[in-house]
Amino acid sequence: MNTRKLIAAIAIGSTAILGTTAYAADDGKPKQSVGEYAGDAAVTTKVKAAIVAEKDLSALDVAVETNNGVVTLTGTVGTADQADRAAKVARGVDGVKQVENKVKVDPAKAK
Question: Where along the sequence do coiled-coil regions lie (predicted)?
């Protein structure tokens, strides 16, 4: 169990460090200021940490992206309860304005 948490923490830390590198791709989305981008990166990190803290969820199964305070969750979990729990955890994080839960359920992943 500790190994799983360590791997998740490393993944979160790597995402936080690598995720703060902004690049100027024209993807059609509205542009964010540096402050907005940094705020979104902080929210993403907090949401991932909250997911790691949940014993029934894995940060390796749920991806988190934040844009202007709107958190989008993606990935695949084993049960609908896990997908709902991920959204509830994300909503409880300071700085989250809205949660879009796009997590898919695959019973084959159930523990």
Answer: none
